[in-house]
Design brief:
This protein is mostly helical and 913 residues long. 67% of the residues lie in helices and 4% in strands. It has a five-stranded parallel beta sheet with strand order 2-3-4-1-5, sandwiched between helices. Strands 6-8-7 form a three-stranded antiparallel beta sheet. α14 crosses α15, α14 crosses α17 and α41 packs antiparallel against α42.
Amino acid sequence: MGITTTITGPNTVITVRAAELARLTELVRAARDGRPVVVELTGDPGTGKTRLLTALAREARGQGLAVLHGRCSEAEARAPFHPLVQALTAWRGTAAEAGAGAAATAALVEALTDVPPGAEQPVWRSPFFAGVRRLLTTGPAASSGGTLLLLDDFHWADAGSARLVETLIRWPVDRGLMVVVAHRPRQAPVALRAVLQQGGELGAVESIVLGALPAHRCAEVLGLRADAPELPRLYARSGGNPLYLTALAEAGSLTGDALDLWTSSSLGARLLAETELLPAVPRRVVHAAAVLGSVFDIDAVAEVAETSRDEACRALSELRRRDLVRATAQPGVLEFRHPLLRGCLYADADACWRSGAHRRARDRFARLGLPALDIAPHIERAGSGTRPADAEVLAAAARACAQTGRPAEAAHWLKSALRLGRRTGDDSGAGPAGTELWKQVVRALAAEGDAERIVALSAEVLAGPDGRSPRLRVRAVAFLAAVLAALGHDEGAQALLAAELPAAQAVSPATGLLLRVGQQLGKVLAGQVPARADVEVLVHGTDGADPVTTGGALGLAGLCAVLDGDMCAAEMSLDAAAQALDEVDSGRQAGEQEAGHLLVLSWAEALMGWYGPAYGHAERALTAVRGRGDTHFLPPLLDTLGYVHYQSGRLADALSAVREGSAAARAMGRGDHVALSDAITAAAWAQLGRTSPRPATTGAHDRAAPEPRTPLNALLLAEASLASGEAGAALALLLPERDAWRVSEPVAVFAARNYELLAAAAVQTETDADTLDAWAERAAEAASTVGLVEQSGHALLARGHAFMGRELTAEAARCYGEAQRLFGDSSPAGARARELARSAVRLTDRRESSGLDELTLREREVADLAGEGLKTKDIAGRLRVSPRTVDVHLTHIYSKLGVNSRAALVRLMALAG
């Protein structure tokens, strides 16, 4: 995306170089008061010297000064006094004062344009400059309000102009003349720099250096906030140079050929103007250097430019004089002034010559044994002169990038390698080793959620050797589709599978079945639920299929049955799936398709409450996924393990698993997995008696978008709220009629748990007993429908909550105790049932003994008054204490009597008589 910059005219310089302009404005006032001033303004190209002079001229005119503006150029470098003649001629034609001043100015122009022969002789030079100084004093400098003489790009000035500036420094005019000499210090002649430096040492010249802009100033230039995410990149690439900064920002909005971008842009025109008068050999040398890159060595330039080393050295010296290239700390190695300059010069070179130069660079680097990443750019641009062996170099470059965490670059070089292999008819770089390479690159792209590049790379892979073998093509398609689906790019995955399915079925029924199972697996990986009828058709067609495909189809059927509440069918399918997939477990690493099917099986087993088998199958898949680097499978696998650990009471393991899974999901852009990880995290921390830490993000790599809250997420967050004593929040999460936090009706396998949590929250919020009974009845019905032990435990808990609502504590204690036996002691539900049972037993015991004898005298007084129905304020008035003191007594009373509300206390006091 491009950036619209705010620099559109000279008046914006005020905000860019405000401090420098302020200082120059002070000096203008000195000239207006009649004092002579000389200023040296230096800076690299693009730092804003000309814009600053333009702003200064406008300011000076506003203060009544006469402004003369002359500019040097390389073309007029040999024209005597060109900048002064230009300034005087333009000023005389527009703003010269009448009278003697005008005549002196005319005489000055004539003197500067009619230099006699032999003027370079010292004998003649001193009287001549004295005369010029006298005419300048009586002409332009005689302006009543003072005079400002601006000399821009003075590094191109002729020797006479430089000598005149020296004269004005050593013998200032006795009028209000301010001279500003702007130049590039690296290109200025030594004599000019020496004169200005000596003037500074004598106090006759003030020097102002325009360096790099600070980051906050760059933000102002671009019209961005100081914390804009794109600013650091633009600032680093521009080096704080305003010209490069704006060019880089504006380039983002331009489209078209990258080479045309720089040659046709205003920046390109400005930079290429610096090379307009270059002789042929230096021009060829600078183009050769641009082919080599931003940094290059002399020997390489000589070879690529097809010239001798001595000639290349002379040419590079000329280029250094022009500040096109600069020396580095390493002897014999130079660099361009800026990468943008290199880009313009590269684009300026003839395209055919450039291709040959890249071939020469390729040959040199290969002969020297340089790394593949140094050679690959030259192979890519070598045109028709590529060789079969070049594909191996491009593949090596792709491998190096993939191994160093640069997947986008790896994909680029891999695509180039595959295309070159097809063009040269040599696919040696994409055989068995090539298959592993492209999968490595795809996995690296998946880790960053880059589905777009995976789709683009898929076309190249399937056009290569893996796409020409039917067996390899089917497996490649299945792998690529699974990756895309795991990234949430289900449309791309399904389109890829659908396009390949007819050809696969024509090869054999087994290959067709592999892709059809892959279609349904892709839906699960993308966070969808396959149609049960479609999956059952697959199961009926598995006769004679391999165990992995058969197990995958059965696992999908089992998952669909679980979510439909058909537990009998689910149990049969999942048992058969486990048997098929366990048969191929010989201690080896699970295959790619096998890992995906183990993931589905383990999740379905977790939903059934079969946490032991679920853990075993998920761990088996995770081992294989880690071994191969299949990062795209990590979020669902680690969420599955985290859920299994949580339900089994291994809270630390649960937190560890979902922490890793959440980080991977955020990088991949899977907000649904992030949401589940956050829900498990909140529930686990709540069980540990702590609040869940704020979810960590990965900054710019955090691609995950917010996702709708699912029934399971709502259940886990509700459990966290209840454990934290926030029953109202739990109700808001679960009640379907609450619009603010509405979730879909619970799936059958979670229904009993859902209604039990509603009942638990209702008890804490003193909901009426009839509502509690309704929740308990729904929980019982749901548990009966699915017939799962865990859900039966939740139904018992719900019945216990209903008894508590009617203050039948003994019956509640029995229900809680039975639920605990079903859950076991280790799970969070079992721990909750145990605590509820103990609380109900204590309450029963206290009610049998009334518990009033445990109260202090003051607490008994408060309890009696509360039993009469008095409010806290009334009780405080009766006992002459503060309402806060009454609340403290009531808290102690509730604890000692085993009640949790004012209404329960009133009923207890009534029973006690």
